[in-house]
Amino acid sequence: MNNRGLVLLLLVAGLSASCAVGPDYHPPKVQVPAHWSEAQVGGATNAAVQVVDWWKTFNDPELNSLVRRAVVANHDLRIAEGLLREARALRSGALWDLGPTINAGAGYTDARQTPNSLPFKGSLTNFTYLFHTDLYDAHFDASWEIDLFGGKRRALQEANALVASVEENRRDVLVSVLAEVARNYLEVRNSQQRLAIARKNIAAQQDAADIARARFKSGLSSELDVRQAEALLATTKSQVPAIETALKQSIHRLGVLTGLQPDALSGELSEPQPVPAPPPQVPVGLPSDLLRRRPDVRRAERQLAAATANIGVQTAELFPKFSLTGVGGFQSFSAADWFSGGSKYWSAGPSVTWRILDYGRVRSQIKAASAQADQSLAAYEKTVLLALEDVENALVAYSNEQAHYRALSDAVTANRHSLDLANERYRSGLIDFLNVLDAERSLYQTEDQLANSQGAVSISLVALYKALGGGWQTEVQPPLTQR
Questions:
Q1: Cα 334 to the center of its chain, rounded Å
Q2: Backbone angles phi, psi at 346, to 5 degrees
Q3: How many angstroms separate the CA atoms of 472 and 320, rounded?
Q4: What is the spatial distance between Cα 421 and Cα 417, in angstroms, rounded to a whole number?
Q5: What is the DSSP string of 8-76?
Q6: pLDDT value at position 478?
Q7: Smallest Cα–Cα separation from 448: which of 254, 238, 283, 213?
Q8: Each residue of 137-195: pLDDT tens digit?
Q9: Burial level of 264, CB count in 10 A (0-12/13-18/19+)?
Q10: What residues form DSSP beta bridges with 108?
Q11: What is the pLDDT of residue 39?
Q12: CA-to-CA distance for 159 and 89, rounded, in angstroms?
């Protein structure tokens, strides 16, 4: 290459390193409130949040074990990891597009030409070799499109952003899986507690029915007392199958979440245990933290970055494409001198292509890319709002369920006292047996509701941790503006 060609090549390379058409991406700015409206209620505070291993705040070794197994074996996580590997592989292709393409080839051709195809007539004795030939060829060819206007660099930016969005999707799946494991485990313990309450009340109501039956046989009460006691007993028994169904379904769900057969954990979880209690305080941080912590928000932001880069990819099609191409190799009619000096051939030179008559199609693609970027911006803003809504709703549910639990606890205390009084007055003959049954019914209902509310408090906390985007951070994440 002469000096003029070298200077031209360096000039083109310098221009390509500094020029990239299309808009440069800047992370969008969104308005978020300074504080949560419910952050000081029910133990939630605006203190800095640490939600990396939030399930450990329940202090339940079984829950910790289930989470560890789910992280390793959950199928949704395995699918998300496969998608991430796929995206990274495709990104590598975009990176290689910046360099030259080099191919190698070799071939052998056995060809026969008819004499009648020659453009002359005459003695063909000395030209017989032209009719049947063997051609041996081995060559390398290379082409390099110089990224003068940055289309390929924008494509690489798009691929990088898409890889990051798929990585955030994997994290989002992880957040959901961890929350599902915790929720179903809490439902298992809650169902076991409700079953214990139901069976305790069935035993008490069975005793009451036996007493009513004995008093009826002794002529001290009417048959109505017996039938009412039996009706209350049957009603309480009817609640048991539904609770057992919920218990089995939660155990089956946990089995699948941990990559096992649905009934694989039945023996492990068969022993009833209390519902794990939430911690006294739950730091939730500030609303602005969600932009860094929620994987779905981060995913939407990366998708917006990819859509913005795609505008540059399409805009580059308006400009000419400069390429350097070359080919060199060995070609001979005989294998004996195939790689000799006389068999060498080569060619090299620049080329330019320009879609001059296709501007209408190119501009339509640019407009479509711009519209897709606008959609991605709206999707990002919507995702931020939904994230804020999730946290606000989870805070309200968590605080109000605690108030509900406290009220039910008072109701259970009052109903136990009421039942004691009813039994005492009934034995004294001061009230009908119906009053005792009503007191028993009220006590069972409030005890069951209290147990259910206790589980709901812990489940609401799981929903809050999920809304805060907890459970995936393994290291401090850089701000989006540094990407």
A1: 62
A2: -165, 160
A3: 46
A4: 6
A5: HHHHHHHHHHH---SPPP-PPP----SS-TTTTSTTEESSPP--TTGGGGG--HHHHHHHHHHHHH-HH
A6: 39
A7: 238
A8: 888 888 888 888 888 889 889 999 999 999 999 999 999 999 999 999 999 999 999 99
A9: middle
A10: 136
A11: 65
A12: 10
The whole model's pTM is what? 0.83
For residue 367, what are the contacts with CB-CB under 8 A and spacing of at least 6? none
Expressed in angstroms, the distance from the first to the final Cα of the chain is 40
Laid out side by side, the sheet with 321-332 consists of 101-112, 132-146, 321-332, 344-353
pLDDT tens figures, 235-285: 999 999 999 999 999 999 999 999 999 999 999 999 999 999 998 888 888
Coil, helix or strand for 93?
helix
**Do 198 and 236 form a contact (C-beta atoms < 8 A)?**
yes
Sign of the torsion angle spanned by Cα atoms 362, 363, 369, 375: negative
Q: How far apart are CA 73 and CA 95, in angstroms?
A: 32
- 185: closest CA among 474, 454, 458, 393? 458
Stated as kind and residue range, the H or E segment containing 350 is strand 344-353
Tell me the backbone φ, ψ of residue 138, rounded to 5 degrees: -140, 130
> Is the CB of residue 447 less than 8 Å from the CB of residue 201?
yes
| pLDDT (tens digit per residue) in 84-129 | 999 988 888 777 777 788 888 888 888 777 666 666 555 555 555 4
Give the CA distances from residue 176 to residues 6, 53, 80, 164, 239, in Å, rounded to whole numbers and listed in that order. Answer: 57, 14, 12, 18, 31
DSSP state at residue 275: P
Kindly state the average pLDDT of the residues 338-358. 84
- List the structure tokens of 380: 């990002």
